C-alpha cells in the first residue's frame, strides 16, 4: 500500500521526463533518418562524414575549447579571490547580474563597442596603437563568448572553494609545503568537481552557439549550431539538422561521462 | 510544504485575475470576436498611421504581428494555432504555400482597387491570374556602397566586387539564394541555374571573393552600413533605400548583368478567422492614396500605378528603385527550384561560408 502511494507521486515526474526529455530526443533521432521527401534513409549520416561537416565539427570543438579554457583561466582566480572578500555574496551577485540581461542585447552592445568608431577603437587610438578591425574576428567572438559564459563558470567553482575547509590549507602550510604546492596538492584537487561542472556548463552550450557566430563573428566562424539553424529555418532539411543534433547529443553525453564524478581512490 | 502550496495558489489566482482583466480590456477596446483582423507582415514594412486610419474607417481593430523571414512565417502558419487573416510572403513562398494548400483564394469582386495595380505585376508565373495573392511591394537585389570611403569608386557590374582594392570591405546579406545568385549573375548565368557545373563554378568564384568579404550578416547590415563600418554591401533594394535615407553618403546600384526581382504579395492564410475583414484590408492597402503614403514611408517600390501618380517625380524617376525597361528585362524572379535543389544551394552556400580568407 505504502509503496503504491509513493509511486503516485512519481507520476508527474515521470510524465515530465517522458514528454519533455525522452520524446524530443526520440523525435530528433527519428527525423535524422528522414530525407527531404520524408523517406527513410541513412544518407544524412553519410553526409555528416564528408569534409564539410567534419571540418565544421572540428571548428566547433576548437572554439568551444578555447572559450572554456579562457573562461576557466579567468574564472578560477576570480572565484578564489571572491571567497576571500568581505561581502562575497554581494560581489557574486554583481558578477551574476549581467546574465540577467538578454544575450541578444549584450551582443548588440558589443557591435557598438567593437565597431570601427566604437569605444574599443577609440581607446586604441588614445594609446597610439591606431584603429584595428575587432568586430568579425576570432578575438571578438571568443571575447564576447567568454564574457557571456563566465558567470556559469564562476558559480560552481566559487561554491567548491567556499566549501573548502580552511584548516586543510593551514595544515598543509604547517607541514611545510609552499603556497604553490598547497594550491596544487590541496586546493585544486579538492575543488576539481566545481571546475568540472563549470567546464560542462560552458563547453556544451559553446559547442552549439549560433547567434553570436553571425552577430559578432559575421559568419566568419561556422559552428555546428549555425548549420542546425540553417537546416531548420532556411533549407527546411530537418533530417540533416536532426542528424547534426544527434551528433551533438552523443558528444555531450560523452563529455558528461568523461568529466563525470566517478568514484576514485585517494588523490 | 504549506508555504509552497500557498505560493502556488497565489500565482494561480493572480494569473487568473490577469486573464480576466485582459479579457475585459480587450472587450472595452473593441477587440472581440469578428471585429478584429490579424495582420502578419515583415518588420517595419507598413506606415503605422495607416493601421489607425483603417481602424477608423472600418471600425475594425487591427492586431499587427511581424516576422523576419519567409521560412519562419511559413513554419508558424503551417504549425497551426495562429489566426492570421492577412500575411505578406515573397513570391517563392507563395508558390510553396499554394502547393501545400495553406492559402485561401482571393475574391477579386471584393477588391475593386485591384485595377490600380500595374499589369506588369499581375498574372505572374508564381500565381497565375492572382488567384491567391495581391501585390504589395517589389524590389531588387543590388550593391549599396559608400563613395566617400572609396574615393569615388563606382559600381556597375557584379564583377566590380572582386576588385583587389576592396579587401575586407564587403558585407553580404546572409541568404543562400542571394549570395549564390549574384555569383551566378556575375558569370552571366541564370539565377535559377540547376546545372551542377555552373553552380560549382559560381561557388568557386565566390570562394575567390572571400578576401574581400568582411562579414555575412542579417538585418544588422543596415546599421553597419549606416555607421560606415564597411563600404560595400550586397542588399535588397528596400534596405538600401532605408540606409540611404539615414546616411546620405550611400548609393545603390542594380548591376548591369542583371539581378533578382522579387515581389511581396498579400495573401489570406487558410487559418484566417475574418476573411471578410482580410479582403477589406487588402482593398484598403491598394487604394492609390494609401499605397502612396505607405510607399513614402517604407521606401520599397510600389506596384500601384495610381499611387505612382501621387508620388513625387524624383521618387518614381529614380532608376535605382524603378529600373528602366531594359534593365528590368535582365532581372529574374526566383523560381521554386524544389526542396532538393534548394538544399543543394544551401550546401554550396555552407561550403562557401566555411572557406576562410
TrEMBL record, chain A:
Q: Which GO terms describe its biological process?
A: transmembrane transport
Identify this protein by name. ABC transporter permease
- Annotated keywords: Cell membrane, Membrane, Transmembrane, Transmembrane helix, Transport
> What species was this sequence derived from?
Fervidibacillus halotolerans
List, alphabetically, the InterPro entries matched: MetI-like (IPR000515), MetI-like_sf (IPR035906)
State the Pfam families in the record: BPD_transp_1
**Annotated SUPFAM superfamilies:** MetI-like (SSF161098)
Where, subcellularly, is it found?
Answer: Cell membrane
Chief localization: membrane
PANTHER family named among the record's database cross-references? INNER MEMBRANE ABC TRANSPORTER PERMEASE PROTEIN YDCU-RELATED, INNER MEMBRANE ABC TRANSPORTER PERMEASE PROTEIN YDCU-RELATED-RELATED
The lineage's top-level taxon is Bacteria
TM segment ranges: 12-33, 61-83, 90-114, 134-158, 198-217, 237-258
State any GO CC term: plasma membrane
Transmembrane helix among the record's keywords? yes
The record's family statement is: Belongs to the binding-protein-dependent transport system permease family. CysTW subfamily.
**How does it sit in the bilayer?**
Multi-pass membrane protein
Q: What are the ABC transmembrane type-1 domain coordinates in residue numbering?
A: 57-259
UniProtKB/TrEMBL annotation, chain B:
Q: Which SUPFAM superfamilies match?
A: Periplasmic binding protein-like II
Q: Where in the cell is it found?
A: Periplasm
Give yes or no: UniProt keyword Lyase: no
Which InterPro entries does the record match to this protein? Answer: SBP, Sperm_putr-bd
Q: Which residues bind spermidine?
A: 92
Gene Ontology MF: a single term: polyamine binding
Q: Which terms under GO biological process does the entry name?
A: polyamine transport
Q: Which CDD domains match?
A: PBP2_PotD_PotF_like_2
Membrane spanning stretches: 7-25
Task: Alphabetically list the UniProt keywords.
Answer: Membrane, Periplasm, Signal, Transmembrane, Transmembrane helix, Transport
Q: What is one GO cellular-component annotation here?
A: periplasmic space
Please tell me whether the keyword Transport is annotated for this protein. yes
Per its UniProt record, what Pfam families does this chain match?
Answer: SBP_bac_8 (PF13416)
Q: What is this protein called?
A: ABC transporter substrate-binding protein
